[in-house]
Amino acid sequence: MTSNVTISKGVFDFLAELKKNNNRDWFEAHKPTFKKHKSDVKSFLEAVKDRLNHHDEIEKMKLFRIYRDVRFSKDKTPYKAHFAGSFSRLGAHLRGGYYLHLKPGESFLATGFWAPNKEDLLRIRKELEMDASEFREVINQKELKTIWGELSGDEVKTAPKGFDKEHSDIDLIRKKQFVFTHKFSDKEVLSSSFIDEVDKSYRAIRPYFDLMSDILTTNLNGESIL
Fold first, then answer.
1. Regions of the chain with pLDDT less than 50
2. What pLDDT does 159 receive?
3. Cβ burial, residue 44 (10 Å; 0-12/13-18/19+)
4. Is the pTM of this model over 0.90?
5. Parallel, antiparallel, or unpaired for β 97-102 and 83-89?
6. Which of 91, 108, 136, 111 lies closest to 203, judged by CA?
7. Would you call 105 helix, strand, or coil by DSSP?
8. Which of 221, 211, 222, 226 has the alpha carbon at shortest distance from 95?
9. Which residue, 6, 44, 130, 167, is most buried by CB atoms nearer than 10 A?
10. Helices (H) and strands (E) in the chain, counts
11. pLDDT of 4
12. What does UniProt give as the signal peptide span (predicted)?
């Protein structure tokens, strides 16, 4: 097991200053500081990945770039005032992803399905249309619900095309995303136990990932499509 790698207060101090000075001149002048904090955050993500691999199989870890793509945005500030990383599960048989977002006053974890392709989305909706009881049982498990709260994500206003808007499970069927989030205070993020809480949270989502992986790798008869 990895030792307790931590997020330093300096990371948040830098991000707070970047938010107030979001321009290229300031950033270039403070680039060595940025590189140090980026390296520290990457080390933290590597430690999270190591923890995850004790109870899951992670194919890829990604530390997102701090540079913003401003081509199609009204907000022309060149940098993100946060650090973020993601962890992708291994192969076609393990579905779902983990996300970690570090920002003063706005840190959170997220897990689930942000942008399922149209085939996966239809498969999930068909499953829920047929029988949503197991899905509801899993997302209402005590530990999962205590840590992650309610399922969230964008949804259509009434019903997706081809589905009955009066269906008893339309609240689930209309979803376009199937996501859970867990917010953390700055004090929690900077504590020595933060990595333990991250790992505990990711462990708690596993029954949901197991169910969704089963759904997305089988047809409506439960036969493997891999």
1. 1-2
2. 96
3. buried
4. yes
5. antiparallel
6. 111
7. coil
8. 211
9. 44
10. 10, 5
11. 79
12. none
